[in-house]
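BUG: 3D viewer hangs when loading the predicted structure for this chain

Environment: internal workstation, default settings.
Expected: structure renders.
Actual: progress bar stalls at 90%.

Input used:
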Amino acid sequence: MAATISCSFSPYSSLDTKKNKSLYYTNTHLFKSHHKLSKSSNPYLLLHKSNHHNSTFHICSTSSQSSPESYLDDPPPKTSIFLTAPELDKYQILKNYQYVHEFEHGSLFVRVMEDDEMDITVGLLSESFAESMMLPMKYVNVLGFLIKQYMVERRSLLPNTAFLVGFYRGKDGEEEELAGTVEVSFNKKGSNTNPPSPTPPKDSPYICNMTVKKLLRRKGIGWHLLKASEELIPQMRNSSREVYLHCRMIDAAPFSMYTKAGYNIVKTDSILVLFLLQRRKHLMCKQLPFYNNPSSESDTSSSEDYPLNELPL
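Structure tokens produced before the viewer hung:
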């Protein structure tokens, strides 16, 4: 499996705060904790590498003077943006969003990632990528450096895109831990610069970068990360209910889950992508229904905990 690395830059517009009733806002430290992860001296050590990952990824990164080995020590830079009143309303939706599901074996709590949770999320994604790409684990720090640059850039696009994180606590008294993550883009402003092929519509919601911690798979967590994403999208959009994602052709279990969740194939990669050292992929689409509480759906934990879809990092 090959990793495609590309560079992009997302400029900010400098608007006068007195014009168009726009509001000046600093997007770091945006979200206050509603459900904090238990701290340790080194949270990264809590992460486990994952396998069965079904994705290649496209990393969009900016230049940095930091070394790959020190990516966990570098906090995301503070960036300032101007928010219109509708954008501020969407920020509030993201800030307050919560998805809770009770299993027989434990509980899952999903919400928008906070700034101080970026490093453990980067660690989970980088170890998942290293495993899926069959890379030695010594490359985890290199992947982590690139993934963090991508996530910092994507976070600057709030509220047009968001990273969700899921925390799991078992019934037998284990400490709460990061169980999985997923990225959702809601509109054209939040779309990826270089999405995987086949290319989804830029103005439609898109789910990507989803993975579940290796030791917590086959518990239904992946299914509910998907459902949490689908529940959030209608709250962030008033128009299109079509949501897209990618699935590699070789990944039978995730494909079965997607079809079970209501996704249909829209387009499939040409065989020519094999010459680019990429796996052929399906672009899948679902028309989101109007429902109020998908977290109450039945627990389907037989095959839904694989890393789920194409990751365009």
